[in-house]
Specification:
Order of helices and strands: HH
Structural class: mainly alpha
Strand content: under 5%
Number of helices: 2
Helix content: 55-70%
Distance between the termini: 42 Å
Number of domains: 1
Radius of gyration: 16 Å
Length: about 45
């Protein structure tokens, strides 16, 4: 939750519950994309 609040903000801006759910899902998607970009691509070393 700390990272979510740091990146997306500490409050939802939408008024209805359905829009709040969508807003939260968009924030989670943004966080997941940022994490994926920071992950190194690795391969098994074959000897």
């Amino acid at each position: 939750m700390f990272r979510f609040k740091q990146v997306v903000g500490d409050r939802l801006r939408s008024r209805t519950i359905e829009r709040q759910k969508r807003e939260a899902m968009v924030g989670v998607d943004v966080l997941n994309r940022m994490a994926a970009l920071g992950m190194p691509e690795s391969e098994a070393i074959r000897t």
